[in-house]
Amino acid sequence: MTAPRMTQYAGGGGCACKLPPGELDELVAALAGSAPANPAAELLVGLDGGGDDAAVVRLDSERALVTTADFFTPVVDDPYDWGRIAAANALSDVYAMGGTPWAAVNLLAWPRETLPLEVAAEVLRGGRDVAHAAGCQVSGGHSITDAEPKYGMSVVGLVHPDRMLRVDAAVPGSALTLTKPLGSGVLNSRHKATGTVFAEAVEVMAALNRDASRAAVEGGIPAGTDVTGFGLLGHAYKLARASGVTLAVDAAAVPYLADARQALADGYVSGGTRRNLQWVAPHVEFGSAPESERLLLADAQTSGGLLLTGEIPGHPVIGEVLPPGPSPVVVR
């Protein structure tokens, strides 16, 4: 029996399935500033911060609770690898805040009439294995029947209130570091269309952002975010907008997965990537960067790395934080 190709059961794939960033901005704008009449805990990070990676509430002077949820349709055909990638992506929201994930529950939507539950079990096994590698408990969750398979996690973690990474704390004069190469979007699009497996991309997407997050916190870095569905440019713009600074990106210093440029040249560009570029273009000074470079910088990533305002040993510096200028993001 031929194993089912998971990506063929979904209209999109991975974080490229996110709502377009401009539409999402409008959707959440009405919620910003709202709060319960008698909150049980102080909200340290919410919608008012410019769209951070997770919500954070204070428990006491040394502990704050980080909570997030993330799920998406299949980004690769192998169900175990899809589970690994989806779990790493959900855990990344906690790492992007400088926190440590402690507990997670599964979120699963499954077309039970067309895909065996044995395949779902492999997805859950992949998620569990990555969460356990992170030292995070996994117990139960929620499942529904759906025409498209979807998987992810809701994750709870802890962070010190005074040692968080957040999008509104970037300071001019800091280096800009990226901890994973770009290109998963175009390679996933090629994989979906052709079935070609890109092993490097799978392992990069399944890798945890734990070590980079710890190094950032230990190094006193105040600001960062993870690079996912809105691409490097989209997440850089959100960080610059929230912090009131300009981020300068040196295009030649940005690392890419092998075969990413060829996949782009061959036309494997997702609709999510094109929407990213359309949304962010008015806020970016591109200089002489060609259209191909702009698309790669806007490529919709799945389980990407951290974009940090400081240097992390072993990871490339791709630019710097500047005082606010005419454009929130500058490509040099």
Automatic annotation (TrEMBL):
Binding site for Mg(2+): D53, D93, D226
Catalytic activity of the protein: hydrogenselenide + ATP + H2O = selenophosphate + AMP + phosphate + 2 H(+)
List of catalytic residues: C15
Entry keyword annotation includes Transit peptide: no
Domain PurM-like C-terminal, chain residue ranges per copy: 172-258
Domain of life (superkingdom): Bacteria
Cofactor entry: Mg(2+)
GO molecular function annotation: ATP binding; magnesium ion binding; selenide, water dikinase activity
Domain PurM-like N-terminal per the UniProt entry, residue ranges: 51-159
E.C. numbers: 2.7.9.3
Entry note: cofactor: Binds 1 Mg(2+) ion per monomer.
Site keyed Important for catalytic activity: positions: K18
InterPro entries named in the record: PurM-like_C_dom (IPR010918), PurM-like_C_sf (IPR036676), PurM-like_N (IPR016188), PurM-like_N_sf (IPR036921), SelD_I (IPR023061), SPS/SelD (IPR004536)
Sequence positions that bind ATP: K18, G50, G51, D52, D70, D93, G141, H142, S143
Biological processes annotated in GO: selenocysteine biosynthetic process
Any one GO cellular component localisation term in the record: cytoplasm
Protein keywords: ATP-binding, Kinase, Magnesium, Metal-binding, Nucleotide-binding, Selenium, Transferase
Assembly and oligomerization: Homodimer.
Family, per entry: Belongs to the selenophosphate synthase 1 family. Class I subfamily.
PANTHER family named among the record's database cross-references: INACTIVE SELENIDE, WATER DIKINASE-LIKE PROTEIN-RELATED (PTHR10256:SF0), SELENIDE, WATER DIKINASE (PTHR10256)
Role, per record: Synthesizes selenophosphate from selenide and ATP.
Protein name: Selenide, water dikinase
Gene of this entry: selD
